[in-house]
């Protein structure tokens, strides 16, 4: 039986690629110098495209694939996929929720601790042989402080579970209040920021959240406040954040996500009050293996005519 063709947008791990290649006729889009010609040439007849949270699938790409029926994404965030266009064309979309939740929450909490306790800065201090200078100065306590969570979805809730163990007082902002949690709810993110020491962004990037963290929220967070972002760079007004960090209008930030990854604003690297990660929240061997397996399971379910495992059926915002 001939293999189904599959467009793959970015390289997965060698193991994942090898398994995909056993099952499908894989077309490696990332290797094409002229992606449009590549898609025009190999696109007709292709029913599925495998992508990830960063590369997604825009309308133009989908339209170069006239027979496309499924976009299978390696990642939970769907902001890089033109969902409205997919719905118009009846293209189904799968993603990888749940399997990455705990790792992303671990990263959020690790960044929070690292930012408050200045762990990377103190590491550099020791490495540079500066300990004899008398010590790097005092840092900020985490336990017992007030934590604000923007987006109390899967990841936000997993962050809250960790925060409970640290005896943090937890509050959140989301589109709506949830009755199944006892955390304090704010219907406005600036009002939340005013009441917390740490603000952790766990929301998806959509029309409600893009650019939401600007000067009014950072003013509310205040001089001693810290911002952690494990969601999407687009939720933050980055030039404004850079100014607030540069001018010490907030105490610090710890960021796993940025505008224009991986070509991020150079100024981040020049600031001492920010901790940077190259979009690593889900990047453990274990979670990435589960994400790869879920992408494949969705593809095989689709081609076998079985129900998709993790289809995105939510509202398009
Ligand atoms: C991945 C992500 O880094 O799940 C998401 O939305 O951004 C991450 O888990 C990404 O999709 C893989 O490159």
From TrEMBL:
Every D-isomer specific 2-hydroxyacid dehydrogenase catalytic domain range: 8-309
Alphabetized UniProt keyword annotations: NAD, NADP, Oxidoreductase
CDD domains according to UniProt: HPPR
Gene Ontology MF terms in the entry: glyoxylate reductase (NADPH) activity; hydroxypyruvate reductase [NAD(P)H] activity; NAD binding
Annotated GO CC locations: cytosol
Entry keyword annotation includes NAD: yes
Coiled coil start-end: none
Gene3D superfamilies in the record: NAD(P)-binding Rossmann-like Domain
D-isomer specific 2-hydroxyacid dehydrogenase NAD-binding domain residues: 109-280
Leader sequence segment: none
Listed Pfam families: 2-Hacid_dh (PF00389), 2-Hacid_dh_C (PF02826)
Top-level taxon of the source organism: Bacteria
Family per record: Belongs to the D-isomer specific 2-hydroxyacid dehydrogenase family.
Protein name per the record: Hydroxyacid dehydrogenase
Organism: Bordetella genomosp. 4
